Amino acid sequence: MFKDHHYLSGDLSNASRCYIGVWNNQIVGFLASMTMPNGFIKNAWRGHRVVILPDYQGLGIGVRFIDACAQIHLDEGHRFFSRAAHPRMGYYMQYSDLWKPTSKNKKLRTDVTHENLFNNHYVDNKRICFSYEYIGNKVDN
Questions:
Q1: Within its chain, how far is the Cα of 77 from the centroid?
Q2: Is 15 a domain residue?
Q3: pTM, to two decimals
Q4: How many helices and strands, by DSSP H and E, does the chain display?
């Protein structure tokens, strides 16, 4: 249902956690997240694919859907990161109190040298993207 609507590819990691967004009893969005292996950041997840169906784009659903999915991760004690090329998504995070920029925000990834790193997934070494961590509404356990 969402495969043909993502600008990179419809491929997903087998390790993805998948979420469906529903609005007025209609399926409108999809988000996949996956763990973010890193030697410095522990217990972290990142957005892997986000798709809002064309009929529902431009209504603010996408940014709120990402916030909701990121909040689920935060409530479970995980950190959640997002890297976005789409200007609307990036500027939303830039001006939202729920997100904070990472050290890679709006910088060309010179530390990435492979264009085809994994299963033909494009790596951001030729475009500047928005890179943010969700800090959201923390819940004390």
A1: 17
A2: yes
A3: 0.78
A4: 2, 8
The residues near 10 (Cβ < 8 Å, ≥ 6 apart) are 2, 3, 4
Q: How many domains does the chain have?
A: 1
Q: Which helix (H) or strand (E) holds 71?
A: helix 61-75
Place of tokens 């040298």: 113
**What does the pLDDT look like over 29-86, one tens digit per residue?**
999 999 887 778 889 998 888 888 888 888 988 899 999 999 999 999 999 999 887 7
Task: Quickly tell me which residue has 């033909």 as its tokens.
Answer: 120
Closest of 67, 84, 76 to residue 130, by C-alpha: 84
Residue 141 lies in a domain: no
CATH number at residue 92: 3.40.630.30
Confirm if 30 and 4 have CB atoms less than 8 A apart. no
First to last CA, the chain: 37
Give domain status of residue 139, yes or no.
no
> Would you call 29 exposed, middle or buried from its count of C-beta atoms within 10 A (0-12, 13-18, 19+)?
buried
**What number of other Cβ atoms are within 10 A of residue 75's Cβ?**
13
Between the CA atoms of 119, 122, 125 and 127, what dihedral angle is there, to the nearest 10 degrees?
Answer: 180
